[in-house]
Specification:
Oligomer: heterodimer
Largest interface: A-B, 21 and 26 residues
Number of helices of chain A: 9
Structural class of chain B: alpha/beta
Helix content of chain A: 25-40%
Shape of chain A: globular
Largest sheet of chain A: 7 strands, antiparallel
Distance between the termini of chain A: 28 Å
Shape of chain B: globular
Structural class of chain A: alpha+beta
Number of strands of chain B: 6
Radius of gyration of chain A: 24 Å
Largest sheet of chain B: 6 strands, mixed
Chain lengths: 388, 223
C-alpha cells in the first residue's frame, strides 16, 4: 500500500505531498486542480514507468499527436515531443534537476523521468577475439552548458527513466523505429497490479474480458450482490455472445441478467448506466487484487441513494482483496456517502484529500493536498470539503 | 453538516463560551455573524464540546487557511488547572504549539495581551487566548470576574463572600470562581442568565485593561 505519496514536476504539480493515505481514498477539488493527474501519476508509479503505459496516458488526451514541434525551431533535431505534456507547462524543463518524480517515501519506491541532452559518440573497443567493434555511448550534456549553443553541435534528447530497481533511456528521435524501441522495454516484473477505470463507460468487450478473468470465483457472487443494490430483482448474471445478424461485430459478448419472475434474461445495458458502472467497479476491484484501483468520477451513472451501499462494498472488498482504491469525484452526495462509510468501517482506513491552490506567498500558487481522515471528516462541514 | 459562511472563525470550548464571545465581538464593533464563533459541536454535527475537540478543530482549520477557505482564525480555551487533571497555562500553550509547529506556525508573542502565531510561508497570523489571562491557571469565569463593572463591586463581593461562607461546598475548590460567577448572575434583574448576559447590561467595565487586552487581541486576530 502507498502511504506517503510525493509527486514532483508532473503535469500541474510542482511538488505535491500526500501523507497518511488510506486503503480507500477519495480525491476532491475544483476543476483543473489535478485530480485526474494524481490518478495518472499513480498509474505511472504502479506500472513502474512502463513506456507503453506512459504512451497510453498521452494517447488518452490526444497528446501523442505531433501537429507541432516547438523544439525544432531552436535548431535541435526534430524529436518526438509528446512526453513534454507530462512536464509542468507542457515543456521539457530548461534546467537540469527538474525531473518528474512519483514516489512513496514510506517504501523508498519511486519512478523518475528525466529529460536529458547528450552527444552520441561511437567508441571503438576490442572484443575477446581481438576484433575491433564500435559501441554507441551517450555523453551527457548539462543544460546550462555553453556547448549547447555552439554552432557545430546538435545535442540529442532522451528521457532517462529510473526506478528503485532499473533505469533505461527512452530515445526521443522522431522515428517509428525509436518509438518501437521504447515500447520494447516492456513492463517491470515488479510493477504493481492496477486497473484504471475512466470516466466513460468501458466497452462490452472489455467488461466481458474482465469477467473472464474472475468467472467462477467469489467475484461472481459479489457482482450479483452489487447489482442487487440497484435492483433487488436481479438474480443471475452471464456474458453471452451476440447472435449473428445483430449490429455488434461478430464475437462481441454482452452481459445479460436474469430477473426474478421473468423467464427470459434481459441485457444489462438495458437496465441503465448505473448497472454497467457498478459491474465495472466490482470487476475492476477483483482485477486489481493486491494492487491499485484508480477510478475517475466515482459517482458516474450512480444515483445518490445507492452510493452509501456501494461505498460500504468498496471498503469491504478493498480490505478483503488487498486493493488500495483511489477515486475522484465532483459530487457532494458522493463525499457524504464516503464520509459515512469511512467512519462506520473502522477496519478499513478511508481518507479524503482535497486538492487546491495555496494562497501562501511562499507557495507561489502551488497545488497542495489537504488530507481528511475519518476523525477530521467528522469535524468538517460540506462547505469545508468543497468539491466543485 | 451545517454551512459556516464566514471565513473568519473563532473556535471556543462550549455553547456558553460561544454566546459570550459572540456578544463580546458584537460589542466591540463586529457585525453579527461577521465572525463565526462556536464550539466544534456547532461547527459540524456529531463532534463534541470541550477543550480537546476545540483545539483539534482549530488545528484542522489552520489547514484551511492555506487555500483561503478560512481567512482569519482564533482559538479561546481555558487554561484549567494542571493539578486538577488539566494542562494549565504552560501545558496548554505547549500542547497547541506542538500541533501548530508541523503546520509551520510558531508563536511570535504571548502574555497578557494574547498569543499570536505567525506562519513561515506568509499565511495570516492566527490568535490563541488561554483564559483567563494567558499567564495564570483558571477559566473564562476568572476573566469575567476580572472585568466586572465598578457599579457591581458590592453585589459581586457579597456573592463571592456567600460562596466562601459555605461550610462544606459540593463543588471542588478550583471551581470556586465558577460558583461565584453563577451566584452573581443569579442575583441580577433576570436571575440565572448565561455569561453572555454580562455584555450589554452594564455589568462589565469596557475600559478595564483586561477587557481592552482581549479586544485588542480579537482585532489583531480578525482584522
Amino acid at each position: 500500500m502507498i502511504h506517503d505519496l510525493t509527486i514532483r514536476n508532473f503535469r500541474l504539480f510542482d511538488e505535491l505531498s500526500i501523507n497518511g493515505l488510506g486503503r480507500v481514498n477519495l480525491i476532491v477539488g475544483k476543476n483543473n486542480s489535478g485530480k485526474s493527474a494524481v490518478l495518472e501519476a499513480l498509474t505511472i508509479y504502479a506500472s513502474q514507468g512502463d513506456p507503453a503505459t506512459l504512451y497510453s496516458i498521452l494517447g488518452s488526451h490526444d497528446e501523442n499527436l505531433r501537429f507541432d514541434n516547438p523544439l525544432s525551431e531552436s535548431g535541435v533535431e526534430a524529436i518526438d515531443s509528446s512526453f513534454r505534456h507530462l512536464f509542468p507547462n507542457r515543456r521539457f524543463p530548461e534546467e537540469d534537476g527538474k525531473e518528474i518524480y512519483i514516489g512513496d517515501s514510506s517504501r523508498g519506491s519511486y519512478v523518475q523521468l528525466e529529460h536529458r541532452l547528450f552527444f552520441e559518440v561511437f567508441e571503438e573497443f576490442q572484443d575477446e577475439s581481438g576484433s575491433t567493434l564500435r559501441r554507441r555511448k551517450r555523453v551527457p550534456l548539462e543544460k546550462s552548458s555553453p556547448d549547447l549553443f555552439s554552432q557545430d553541435t546538435t545535442p540529442e534528447q532522451a528521457l532517462f527513466l529510473s526506478t528503485k530497481n532499473r533505469s533505461f533511456w527512452l530515445d526521443l528521435a522522431d522515428t517509428p523505429l525509436s518509438r518501437r524501441r521504447y515500447l520494447t522495454h516492456g513492463a517491470d516484473a515488479r510493477s504493481i497490479p492496477h486497473v484504471y477505470v475512466p470516466t466513460d463507460f468501458i466497452t462490452a468487450e472489455r467488461l466481458a474480458s474482465m469477467w473472464d478473468s474472475v468467472a467462477l470465483t467469489e467475484a461472481e457472487e459479489y457482482s450479483l450482490k452489487a447489482l442487487k443494490i440497484i435492483d433487488e430483482s436481479v438474480s443471475g448474471l452471464a456474458f453471452v455472445q451476440k447472435k449473428e445478424g445483430s449490429f455488434t461485430k461478430e464475437g462481441a459478448r454482452v452481459a445479460i441478467v436474469k430477473i426474478s419472475g421473468q423467464s427470459v434474461p434481459i441485457p444489462l445495458a438495458s437496465m441503465g448506466d448505473g448497472m454497467t458502472r457498478l459491474l465495472q467497479l466490482v470487476l475492476a476491484l477483483f482485477s486489481a487484487k493486491g494492487g491499485l484501483l484508480l477510478l475517475d468520477e466515482f459517482e458516474n451513472g450512480l444515483h445518490f441513494s445507492v452510493q452509501k451501499q456501494i461505498w460500504d462494498m468498496v471498503f469491504h472488498l478493498a480490505k478483503e482483496l488487498d486493493v488500495q482504491v483511489f477515486c475522484t469525484t465532483h459530487s457532494r452526495d458522493c463525499v457524504e456517502a464516503f464520509s459515512q462509510s469511512a467512519q462506520e468501517d473502522t477496519a478499513t482506513k478511508g481518507v479524503l484529500f482535497r486538492l487546491g491552490r495555496s494562497v501562501a506567498p511562499k507557495d507561489a500558487n502551488r497545488i497542495f493536498a489537504t488530507v481528511f481522515d475519518e476523525n477530521r471528516l467528522s469535524r468538517m462541514t460540506e462547505a469545508d470539503i468543497e468539491v466543485r | 453538516m451545517s454551512a459556516n459562511p464566514s471565513s473568519k472563525k473563532l473556535i471556543v470550548e462550549g455553547d456558553i463560551d460561544g454566546s459570550f464571545f459572540e456578544a463580546f465581538c458584537y460589542s466591540i464593533g463586529y457585525r453579527k455573524k461577521e465572525i463565526w464563533v462556536g464550539p466544534p459541536a456547532d461547527y459540524a454535527a456529531g463532534k463534541g464540546r470541550g477543550k480537546g475537540n476545540a483545539i483539534d478543530l482549530f488545528v484542522d482549520l489552520v489547514g484551511e487557511l492555506r487555500d483561503g477557505r478560512v481567512s482569519r482564525l482564533g482559538l479561546i480555551v481555558d487554561a484549567d488547572y494542571a493539578s486538577k487533571g488539566g494542562l494549565g497555562y504552560s501545558g496548554t500553550l505547549e500542547h497547541i504549539s506542538g500541533k501548530l509547529g508541523p503546520l509551520d506556525y510558531a508563536p511570535i508573542s504571548d502574555g497578557e495581551e494574547g498569543i499570536v502565531f505567525a506562519h513561515a510561508g506568509g499565511l495570516p497570523d492566527i490568535g490563541v487566548w488561554i483564559m483567563p489571562n494567558n499567564r495564570n491557571e483558571g477559566y473564562l469565569e476568572d476573566f469575567c470576574i476580572g472585568i466586572a463593572a465598578r457599579s457591581e463591586a458590592t453585589l459581586l463581593r457579597r456573592a463571592r463572600t456567600a460562596v466562601t461562607d459555605i461550610d462544606t461546598p459540593k463543588f471542588p475548590a478550583h471551581f470556586k470562581t465558577k460558583a461565584e460567577m453563577a451566584t452573581w448572575l443569579a442575583w441580577q434583574e433576570v436571575p440565572g442568565q448565561k455569561l453572555a448576559a454580562l455584555i450589554g447590561n452594564n455589568l462589565i467595565d469596557t475600559t478595564s485593561p483586561k477587557f481592552l487586552a482581549l479586544k485588542k487581541w480579537l482585532k489583531r486576530t480578525f482584522d
